[in-house]
Structure formats: C-alpha cells, structure tokens
C-alpha cells in the first residue's frame, strides 16, 4: 500500500479522495466531474477507468453498484484516508481543516495551499487563504460565509467551488466574477442571476434551492453563451429560455419543467445524454411536448415525474428516443396498454415504474410484446393485481424488484424460465406475491437451478435495498 508506486496519472485522483470528510459515501458521477474540472482527466470514460484501477488496488472501496456492476458510490477506509491526508500535505496537494483536530494547517501552509477543504467552521483560516487557491470545498455549515462572499473575488484562479450546508438568501453575485470556475455548487433562495453567463469556462453547475417553488424559476438567457457547460443540476424544477445558440457540450439536465420541452430546445442541445423532466399541476399540462424528445438522438437516461393531480394524458403515439437505455416513470398515471410505446425501445436495459407510473389492475403481455434488451425491472407503489407475462417477454432480464405492490396476486410463473434471471426481490408486497416468488425459486431448485435468488422483505423492520 505505497503511494509512491502509483502511476502518475492516478496520484491526483487518489489524493483527491481526501477532499471528503471521514466515512463519506461519495457519488461517483460527481467525483469524476470534479476530476475533470481539476484537469486530472479529460472525460467520463477515462474517469471510470481510473476509478476501477484504484478499486483494483484496494485503495478505494465501492459502496454501491448498479445492476450491471457499474460503481455508483465509493469511499475509503479510515487508514487509507490517513495515508491520503499525509501524502496530500507532503505533496502540498491539499489542506484540510478537520473536525475536532487540536492543530490545523499553519498560516504558512494556508498561504501556499492550492486546494483547501473546510470540514469544520474555521473563519480565521478562511481569511488567511492566498489568492493562488484553485479549489475550495465547504462541507460544514460555515455560518458567516454569506457575509464573507466578497472575499471570494480575490481568488481569481479558482476552478472548483463547492459550498454545502450553507444557504444564501440572495444569489451571490461575487461568484460570477470567478471566470476560471469549472465546477460550481451552492444553495440559495434566490433566482439565478443573469451574470452567471460570465462563467464561460463552467462545466458543472449544481444549484440547490432552499424552498421549492410552485412555479418554475427561469434560467437566464445568457446560459446559451456558456458553451463549455456539460452538467446542469437545479434543485427545483426550472424553465429553459428560448434558444439563441447551441450547447453542443451539454450532456445532463436535471429537473427541467415539462413546459420547456420543445423541439426548438432539444434541437439546441443535441448531445444530451441524461434528462430529468418534472411536470407540475399548476402548469399548463401539454404532455404532447414529450414527442419533442425524439430530437434527442443521443439520450440514454430519461426520468419523468409528473406531479399533476389529474392522470396524465400523454398521447398514445408519443415517441421516445430509440437511444434510451434507462427509463424511470413516476406519478405519470399511464394506462398499462401504453407500455407498448416503451416495449418498442430497442436499447432499453433499465425500466423503473414508481408511484403509480402506470394505473390499472391488469398488465397483459402477448408473445409479440418483447423487451429485447431489458435487464432490470422495478415496479413500485402501483395498484397492479393481475400480471400476465412469460420468459418470452423478458428474454434478458437479470433482476426483478417489486416494492409496495400490495394488490399483486402473483409473479408470472414462467419467470422461472428466464435463463438470465439472477434475483427477484419483494419489499412489502402481498403475501400471495411473496409466496409465488418462493414457488418459482423452489421449482427452479427442483430442476437443478441454484442460481435464482429470491429475497422477501415483508415487515417494516426489514432492511430494504435502495434502488
């Protein structure tokens, strides 16, 4: 376990794990975005390779993986973290103000620090930072930070600014003068100010809202001049301005208002890969806008949540991009017959139906309705009672996850014939559904198939896996 034997390209990625407080569960997508913003790697694929290399060396632990084995969250052991902090200090890579530490970085170290992390409130250290600082992370509530924002203006080389557990009353305009920023994260009660468009180098922008609004805030029109933007996450659902340019690099939009879903918008962000759409009962519900999704030829992940109080009236002939690999539908209240529009997706691997994403007590599939590539199916909080399907409908299914399906009488018996099926999980479902799952397992075991695992969690005290 020697840092010195690490390849040079892995060393900064490894040391960067010291940014996070002890016992942190780190979102890997965010971690890779930080690596990119720091200039350690060039893209997400390279980031995944670096992470898996660190995991294979037992330097980073994967906390959670997706159904296909891809790492979702990670962390480091306490002993590894101690090693990281020692080496980071020795290399003058990173300084940290730690919780409950008797001694923290000296004034000399503060003046020479290029990356600094506040794991505890230390106003004195903040005032001593040099203007050569490139990275600032605030993890604990820095009570007076909103009053000291003007000091940030002097950090003109800052590339990464992440402020957690602090909520600004108004949009901090001083931040928009930090034109070298690649990564920006903070929370405020105010709308996004137009001057954010001055951050022309920004790649990742994560903005939380202190209070969710009833009507969506609008992104300023200057967003169309931020040509390097790759990831935009807004805590509340938001409206996008009319396009005045193209954002060729934009790959991810989170919590876009349904009313903004137009062909005009999507044609201006042609390389989008991840999209989350939010409908709201106070907005004019024109769900035919979903047809405009067909403009997104590169879209791989779509999440759509409709908080309207009336059942969705999505057109029966709505078109979803053939490129979709993962689809989540929540509160959309679609009839099960509309699943025909989903079945036709040739590359769909993950389907999640949550909170009455589909309504009705019957889902009947005929032999011609085939999810050709589906590997993971989640059905949660639906009124489904009768489900007719077989192995022919799900030829590549690996995991079936049922949660709060209290009316479901049974899992289709033929699911045991799906040769790729590895597990069936039931969380607080009906007794009869749980029994049918066990019956499928016992039948397969009697035929010599020991590979199918059936897990049943029917009691409030049972621990449930997060999906």
UniProtKB/TrEMBL annotation:
Limits of the Disease resistance protein winged helix domain: 19-84
Q: What is this protein called?
A: Putative ovule protein
Q: Which protein family is named in the record?
A: Belongs to the disease resistance NB-LRR family.
Keywords per UniProt: ATP-binding, Leucine-rich repeat, Nucleotide-binding, Plant defense, Repeat
Name the Gene Ontology biological process terms. defense response
Under Gene Ontology molecular function, one entry of this record is: ATP binding
Which Pfam families has this protein been placed in?
Answer: LRR_14, WHD_DRP
Q: Which Gene3D superfamilies does this entry report, sorted A to Z?
A: Ribonuclease Inhibitor, Winged helix-like DNA-binding domain superfamily/Winged helix DNA-binding domain
Translocase as a keyword? no
Give start and end of each Disease resistance R13L4/SHOC-2-like LRR domain: 142-354
Q: Which organism is it from?
A: Solanum chacoense
Q: State the InterPro entries in the record.
A: LRR_dom_sf, LRR_R13L4/SHOC2-like, WH-like_DNA-bd_sf, WHD_DRP
